[in-house]
Structures are given as C-alpha cells and as structure tokens.
Amino acid sequence: MNSNIWVLTSANAVTIATTLILAALGALFTERAGVLNLGVEGILLTSAISSFLAADSSGSIWVGLAVGAAVGALLAGVHATLTVVLRANQIVSGLALVIFGTGLANFLGKPAEGKTVATIIKPMTFGPLTRIPVLGPIVFEHDIITYGTIALAIGSAWYLFRTRPGLELRAVGDDPATVDAQGLSVARIRIRYTLLGGALIGLGGSWLMLAQSAAWHQAATTNGIGWIALALVVFAGWHPVRLIFGAVLFGFCLRLPFTLQAEQITFIPSAFMQMLPYVATLIALIALSRPGSKNLRGAPKSLGNPFVRDER
Amino acid sequence: MTNTSHEVVKGPHHSGDAAPIALSAHSITKRFPGVLANDSVDFDVRTGEVHTLLGENGAGKSTLAAMLCGLYQPDSGYLLRNGQQISLSSPRAGLQHGIAMVHQHFRLVERFSVAENVVLGSRNLSFTLNRKSIDEKVAAVAESYGLPIDPSAIVGDLSVGQRQRVEIVKALYQGAEILLLDEPTAVLVPAEVEKLFENVHAMTAAGKSIVFISHKLGEVVEISDRVTVLRGGRVTGHVSGRGSTDTKELARLMVGRDINLSTQRASHATGHEVLQIREVSLKSEGVDILSHITFNVHEGEMVGIAGVAGNGQRELADTIAGLISPTTGTISIGGNMTTDRGPIAAREHGLAYVPEDRLGMGLVPSMSILDNLLLTRDRHIVVDRASVRPEANRLIEQFEIKANDADHVARKLSGGNAQKVLLARELSGGRAATKLLVVCSPTRGLDVGAIETVRRLLDDARSAGQAILLISEDLDEIMSLADRILVLYRGAIVHETKGEAAQLATVGAAMAGLNTEGAA
Ligand SMILES: Nc1ncnc2c1ncn2[C@@H]1O[C@H](COP(=O)(O)OP(=O)(O)O)[C@@H](O)[C@H]1O
Ligand SMILES: [Mg+2]
User: Residue B415 CA: which ligand 1 atom is closest?
Assistant: First the structure.
C-alpha cells in the first residue's frame, strides 16, 4: 500500500479539521457560557453560501470570510435573543435554527449553483520545510486560516483558564446565580459569547466554502459537519486544545473514504467508509457520556438552563 | 414602626448608643405574586454592632436582606447609608456602598479555587490572572480577620463551614463594611457555629456591621446586640441588650402564639424489626460513600439519622428505597430481602419514601395532585382518575392541603403543601400498606405552621405502629423527634444514642467527625 495515501489523508485531515475546530470552538464558547446552540449546521450552511456570494461579487476572499462570520453572529444573535432574553427552550431554538439556516442557504444558493469561486485561499509556503518527507505536507502546507485557527484554539485555552473574562465566562456557565450576585450581568455575558460563537462558526463555514469546496452543493457542502462539531466539544471535554486533536481525528475519518477511493482500494464498500465519521461520532459520544465519565467533568453545570434571578 | 410592634429594652448596649447608624431601611414594602413579603418594615444597623433579624421561615427575613444589598428592589420605602439616601439597583451597587450578603444558599462556583471565587467579579482585577498574586492577596485579607483559609483549595472539596468562610472572605475582600449573614448557622455543626461567632466578633471589633439572620433563639441571644423580630412580613418587636434577653418573649413575638413543636417520644413498646440493614457499603468511582452500615428500625420507632449534608444520607435513603444497589450488604423490609430488587419490590413490601427533593424526586411538578397520587397506586394501562378522586379529596382534607381541588398542579403548591401531598401519598399506602417510612429533611423550608403539621403527621404514623427513618440535617428536629439517633459521618455510623439521652454537644461533635465514642 502506498504510504503516500496516509500522508495525504493526514494532510487533508488537518485541512478539514480547520472547519471543525472553528465550528466546535464557536460551540465551545457558547456552551461555556451555559448556552447550548444546536444550530451549528444551519449557521455553517448559511454563512458558507453568504461568504460565497460576497466573495463572488466583491472578488475578495477576505470580504467573503468577514461576511460569513457576520452572518454567523447574526444567526447566533437570533438564538441569543430567543433563549437568553426571552428564555425560550434552547434545544427547540437550536433545532429551529438548523431548519431555518438550511432553508435559507438553499434559497440564497439558487444563483450560485454550478458556479465556482474565482479565487480560493492558497496554502502558505515554508520553502524547504514543506519538502520534509511525511511531516512537510502534513504540517507545512496549509493556509493562513488553518494556522490561525490552531493558534486561536491554543489562545482560547489561555483565555478561558488564565484571564479574568475567562474566569467570568466559566463561572456563568457553571453557576449564573453566583455571577449575578457579584453584580455582573449574566445575560450580557451569555449574549456576548453566543455572538462570538456564531461568528466563529460562520468563519468555519466560510472557510469550508472558500478554501475547500469552492462550489456550492447545497446541504452536501457541510455534510453534517456541524453535528460532528457539537460532538467534538463533548469529545474534547470542553477544552479548546483537546479540540485540535479531536478535530484532526475526525478529519481523518472524514477524508479516509475519499483517499481510499482515489487509490482504488475497494475491499470495503465506499458507502461503509463514508459512514465512518458518523459512526465514530456515535461511538465517541456514547463512550464519553456515560455517567461519571471524566470527560463530562468539563461540562458547564448549567448548560441549557435559562437563568432567572427570582428562581430560588 | 408599626402599631403592633413594641419595645422591650433591657440592659445596657454593648456597642453603645453613640455608634452611628450605618444603614437604615424605612417603611420598606415588597410584594411577590400572592405574598406580601415585607410590609412597611423599618430596620437599621449601627457601626460595629450585630443586629439580628429574627423570624420563622417565610417571615420575610431573606427578602428584606435582599433589598438591603441590592438583589431585590423594594416596591416602596427607602434606604439611608450613613444618613444619605441611596438606591441599589443591583448587588454591585450594594457592594459599592460597602454592603454584601452571604446567602443562605452559597453563591460559590464549586469547580473554582477559593481565591478564584473570592476575586470573581472584582473590579480591580487585571486582565490576566496571576494565580500566585491573587492567592496571596486573598490569604492576607482572610488572615487579617482571623479566618484561616487555603486560597488554592477547590471549593467543591470544602466543608460547609469552610465554604461559608470563603463567602465571608469574599465579602470582606470586596470591601464590605456591612455584612448580611442569612441564616449562617443553619448549615453548621455546633463547633463551627462557635468558630463563626468568633469571626463575627473579630469583624465587629474591626468596625464592621453585621446583620445576622436566624430563627434559632438560643444563638440569637448569644450573638446579638439588638434583635428585630419579623412575622408575616411585619416587624413585631425590637429587643436590645446582649445575653440578658428573654427568650420566651422573643418566641412569642416570633410565632405570635404559643406553639408546641415538641412531640411525645414513643412511650409505647416498640415491636418487630421492620427495617434491617446489614453491613451495607456503597462505593462509587473508588470512593466509599457508605461503609458497613448496620442498624434496625422497629415497628412504632423513629430512628433519626443526623449528619452534615453530603455524608451519605441521600445515598443511604436511595439504597433503602431500592434506587441504588449497595456494593455489599443486605437490606430487608418486613423480613423480605429487598437488596438489588429495585424500587418496586421495596414498595411492595411496605416502603414509603419521602425524598429530600420534593419537586424533583418526590412529585412531578407539572402534574396534578391527583395524578401524583396515581403514581404509586396500582396502575393499569388506562388511567382511571375517577376511582382515585374521592380518596384524593379525602387526603386533601385530612392533611390540610391548601389547594383548589385535586387537579391543582403540584408546581403551584407552596413548599409546605407540596410536602403534605407527598406525605399524604406515601402514608396512605400504595402497592402495600405502609410499614416503613423513610423521610428526608421533611420540614426544610416550611413555615412554622406546616412544620407543626408535618411533625404531627410523622408522630401519628409512629403511634400507628409504622417504623420511621428520619434523615435530617436539622439537628434540633432529630433531637426533638427521634427515639434513637445515629450520626452519619463520611458514610459511616460514628455515634449512636437514645433520643432522650442525646447531648447536643456530643452529637454535634460526632457530626463534625470529632469523636467516635459510642460508635455502633
Ligand atoms: N422570589 C420570590 N418569589 C415569590 N415569592 C417569594 C420570593 N421570595 C420570597 N417569597 C415569599 O415571600 C415570603 C418571605 O420569604 P423569605 O423572605 O424568604 O422568608 P424568610 O427568609 O424569613 O424565611 C415567603 O412567603 C416566600 O414564599
Ligand atoms: Mg430565608
């Protein structure tokens, strides 16, 4: 068997992991504030097509990315308004966002069908480093967003665990009444991180569109990555750095069927191979969310609960 | 001051009348849906004194304190801080005026360290957290008031008394001059109460003002410079002078009538063993939750399990109820082995269970009283409400449940009435006639009238020959009701004594893990 397949798959895994990390990081910030946003898939799709249209009409990838992030924040703003301000059920609102986002994306995507983005994000070059066998293509052949995303995840861990706002964010997710008694606004913190989370998810969707797909395939553009991102947050125990490893692992599962197909390795039917990431998600979730599982210790204690001051 | 209140002045003030008034509230009124929680209440606290708010559950003490610190806003009335009118729109505004409250339910993030909890929300905290420097700062504040505390300990690992100390240090760290302590002793064992009182003295000596909230007369007399009594949201009296106060008078002001919470202990002979627990141990993730528990409860006997929350009480109750299987050991009810047989088997052999969490485990909040009753009755595929309705109506009457009818939704009942519904269901028998009643914290959070009823119901059940296991953190309750007291500490029974022979100090020490004399 060609060892290149595995190098290629690994390199591709890192690439696809970028979207996963961005989306999962967005979900992680939201959840750390105690808000569950199940609408990731919907946000990914809507921001993907928005970024496509924006990049297409402006001719600038950066405009596309910015618009995608803004659209993500906008949709998350709807979720925040419903769940934090109006205290609607977070699960219902999140699921509604998936349906709404998917429908909206398909509608917006009508004119984009069959088109490709003119310019796509190019990988950075590190000269001789890229030519190192195995390591070169896996580590040194990605675009700036991928490197930025990994740096962002590491920076997020620092922010969460080593800064004052990070302390307040974790406190809101665990025990909003305590934060409220300290005179900080629970609602403001929750809204802030839900918006930030939406922007990160939106950025992930835009990057997926502009750097990877380059063409709009409706819901197949994201192919359920939003749900995997949500699972990834649990997998990582709500820790941003562990997110990176999880994302690469899932990225590998997602890419494997394609490389195997390209190499015409067909002893396993491709339909089965394509199930791999989703089966892996299921297994990981079931294994990790048993009661008493160490992974769940990072779970924000009041995740999913609206905060009402007078409730004793 | 209202017409109904009166002044009883006794002895000289300790802090002296000269001390200026630090904070005062004037004709404060606060209404919640259906309740007048505070009815033109006047209250003030001087610099360096302990002024106690005394009153039964539901008297409006916490509500008043919440308005003094900015958590709630009064419907009418106003506050003066050092003679200046202030309005507190939030707890933060309260803190800015040097007012902080230590809540009945601690406001601490369990996963955070002590120091992180103390500095949380603090304004003058740099963007990046320097663990070492915040640890040092917090330790310094704690030490200056003689409150020993390990700043890097995780709050979730601390005892209740230590957590309370964290809350007090937090308030002091934030520059509080006036501390509102809401029922600080409710969760403490006697030795910890003493420690707390030392800390209170250290704080008043340093010029802090303390508003102390309690419904326990003995300690109120010990700690207070002045006492204001609240009943039904109104001030019913003021008493001044430490130590020389007449507790009978305070009790009358507090309750409004003579009330008898003491019950007869079983004078009658007790019968067969109904509950037999043999060598029950429970391990979870390698931690011993219960270890080698062995005891019996007889017909017509009430056994009290005393202990500080989290020493295995809840697990013991759940194990008896068949909700948890013990790791080793056996349980039998009425001579029938129920170990590992699940909750239905336990109930079929005559168990009735009133869990601590009334609206969580006890009742389904969104269902009616009737449907809640149906839960433990024999069930058929088609629900037959009509057949149970007469019984439901009879129980509502018999247990004095304040509800419109049997279709009243459980969530909308007050704590006392929810508890009565639960007791009504459990005591009236379901799958089998009740032989054993396991009750956890049955009067927690109830007002005095409901406490009286609940205790009487338990007493009646005992007289009727039922075996009762009373699990409660309220030591006074156990001391006044139980025929036999077992103390649970870290999952083991460390002390056993007869109810009438029980000494508060010995039982309290056992609860704190200080002595193991008389170990079972
Ligand atoms: N947030 C609230 N919403 C509705 N009713 C409340 C609320 N807080 C308190 N009450 C009611 O106000 C009354 C006084 O309560 P509280 O101040 O907690 O009494 P205490 O602290 O003296 O036990 C009680 O009848 C209680 O049920
Ligand atoms: Mg209270």
Answer: 27
Convert B77-135 into a string of H (helix), E (strand) and C (coil): EEEEECCEEECCCCHHHHHHCCEEEECCCCCCCCCCEHHHHHHCCCCCCCCECCHHHHH
**Best of B31, B35, B446 to mutate for ligand 1, by most ligand atoms within 8 A of CB?**
B35
Pick from B70, B108, B126: CB nearest A178: B108
Distance from CA of A21 to the nearest CA of B (A): 24
Distance, CA of B215 to CA of A27 (rounded, Å): 46
Residue having the nearest C-alpha atom to atom 18 of ligand 1: B62
Mean pLDDT of the B490-505 span: 87
What is the structure's pLDDT at B242?
66
Q: Is the pLDDT score of B359 beyond 70?
A: yes
Choose from B265-274, B449-458, B492-501 the range with maximum mean pLDDT. Answer: B492-501
**Closest-approaching ligand to the CA atom of B254:** 1
Give me the residues paired with residue A98 across strands. Answer: none
Q: Is the pLDDT of residue B16 over 70?
A: no
Work out the pLDDT band at B496, boundaries 50, 70, 90.
Answer: very high
Cβ < 6 A, ligand 1 pocket: A 310, 312; B 32, 35, 37, 55, 57-63
User: Which residues lie closer than 8 Å to B154 by C-beta, 6 or more apart?
Assistant: B110, B111, B112, B113, B114
Which of B69, B104, B111 to probe by mutation at the A interface, max A CB count within 10 Å? B111
Q: Quote the pLDDT of residue B267.
A: 57
With residue A236 as reference, give the H or E element that holds it: none
Report pLDDT digits (tens) over B123-139: 778 899 888 999 999 99
Q: Is B166 exposed, middle or buried (0-12, 13-18, 19+ CB in 10 A)?
A: buried
B366, pLDDT greater than 60: yes
pLDDT tens per residue, range A140-178? 778 888 999 999 999 999 999 999 999 999 999 999 999
Angle among Cα B517, B518, B519 to the nearest 5 degrees reads 90
Residues of A in contact with B125 (CB under 8 A): 164
CB atoms within 10 A of CB B140: 11
* CATH class, B273-363+434-511 region: alpha beta
Residue B388's alpha-carbon distances to B358, B372, B394, B413, in angstroms, are 22, 11, 10, 20
Reading the block at residue B192, the tokens are: 């910890």
Give the Å distance between the CA of B64 and the centre of ligand 2: 9
- Per the CB < 8 A criterion, the answer to whether B241 and B9 are in contact is yes
Lowest-confidence pick of A187-191, B11-15, B187-191: B11-15
- CATH 3.30.360.10, applies to B1-98+177-260: no
Distance (Å, rounded) from C-alpha A272 to C-alpha A257?
A: 9
| Residue A222, pLDDT above cutoff 70 | yes
For chain A, give the longest Cα–Cα distance. Answer: 65
The listed CATH number (1.10.3470, 3.30.70, 1.25.40, 3.30.870) that belongs to domain A5-122+137-305: 1.10.3470
* B interface test, pick of A164, A168, A169, A239 with most B CB neighbours within 10 Å: A164
- B13 pLDDT above the threshold of 50: no
Q: Using an 8 Å CB-CB cutoff, list chain A residues near B126.
A: 164
**What CA–CA distance (Å, rounded) separates A79 from A93?**
6
pTM of the model: 0.78
Q: What residue spans in chain B does CATH classification 3.40.50.300 cover?
A: 1-98+177-260, 273-363+434-511
Centroid of ligand 2 to alpha carbon of B215 (angstroms): 9
For residue B12, name the pLDDT band (cuts at 50, 70, 90): very low
User: Burial of B429 by CB count in 10 Å (0-12 exposed, 13-18 middle, 19+ buried)?
Assistant: middle
What is the per-residue pLDDT across A130-139, written as a single tens digit (0 to 9) for each?
777 777 777 7
CA B67 to chain centre: 21
